[in-house]
Every structure is written in C-alpha cells, then in structure tokens.
Amino acid sequence: MSYIVKQFMREIANYVLYASSIINDSEIDVFVRVLLDVLKHNKKVLVVGAGRSGLAGRAFAMRLMHLGFNVFVFGETISPALGDGDLVIAISGSGTTRVVLTIASAAKEVRARVIAITSHKDSPLAKIADNVVLVPGRTKLACENDYNVRQILGEHEPLAPLGTLFEITLNVFLDSLIAELMRCLGKTEEDLKIRHSTIE
C-alpha cells in the first residue's frame, strides 16, 4: 500500500524551513520588545483567533502565562476589559476573519496596542494593527473568508494539509518566540514548570 503521509510531513517541514528564512527579523524584534514591555509594566495581553489559528493562539497564551504574563484568550468568561497600554495579539491568516477584525478595532478604540499575525500585508487586519508579523502559509483565500461562515456552509480546503500551512507554521513560530522570550528573561524550563497546571 502506498502512503503519502511521510511525503506530506516532509513537504510541511520544508515549508516551515522556508518560512523561517523569510519572516522579517525586524517584525520579530518589535514583537519581542512589545511583549517584554507589556510584561515589565504588568499590562494585559489578549489573544484572539478563530479555528486552528485560535488553537495556536491558545497554546501561545498558555506559554505566556508560564512566563508570568497577565494573558487571556478572547471568548473566555474571565477576559477583562482592556485599556491603554494593553496588548491584543490578533491572528488571522487571511487577515479578514470578522471576529478578529471586530476585536482589533475595539482594542484600538480603548488605546490598546494591536499586533497582527497574518499572511497578507495589505489585509484589513494589517491596516488596523499597530504592528504586523507576516507569517506565510495561506496562499489561496477561500471563497468565503470568514472562518465561522465557512464552517456553517461546510466549505473546507480541498486538501487539508496544504490548507493549514499557516497554522502549522504559526505554531512553530510562536513556540520559537517563547524560546526567545525565555532567553531574554533568563528563564529555564524549570521556571515555566512552576506555573504549569498541577491538576492533570
């Protein structure tokens, strides 16, 4: 029997390597500096994303919590009001996801800073944001760009592994960003374990 599993694993891994060579160093630098400043001044961080992007955002938020950030995920009942100096990390490969755009716009109204993570530099989300980190991966937009509407209509990418390159690359990028924050803060894995859940 012929399997394409390993072939796709190699293609995805090669794509992540390619992405690591083109993600802009200055965009990473700004992202890191903003996060460190937020931590220093004990400001709030709100992570927002839909679908698999939202799942990647949740994993990132958990690691930020382990590092001592005052971090929340949009949609949770415990998410507090945002204000001046707080940070919204808005994630959307297309840069057009309605809920992400709505939250980013609302954040700007209360003078929170918005960092967009997207594949499209000219997208509505990128235009709202204070800073943008371009993470490649979503090369073809679906007919209906809003994630929630696509789910209701049952519209999906024709080939799932290639339709999720943004989210896979995003996961690797955000985990690598945590490693950089650990380095900047002089934190070790043991330090992170102190804040890790003990109810498992």
Can you tell me about this structure?
With 200 residues, the protein is α/β, with parallel strands linked by helices. It is 52% helix and 12% strand. It has a single domain (9-188), classed as Glucose-6-phosphate isomerase like protein, domain 1 (Rossmann fold, 3-Layer(aba) Sandwich), CATH 3.40.50. The protein has helices at residues 5-22, 25-40, 51-66, 98-109, 124-128, 147-153, 160-163, 165-185, 189-194; strands at residues 44-49, 70-73, 87-91, 113-118, 131-134. Strands 2-1-3-4-5 form a five-stranded parallel beta sheet, sandwiched between helices. α3 (51-66) links the parallel β1 and β2. The model is unreliable at 139-144 and 156-162 (pLDDT under 50).
In short:
Helices cover about 50% and strands about 10% of the residues. It has about 200 residues and is an alpha/beta fold. The chain starts with a helix and ends in a 6-residue tail after the last helix.
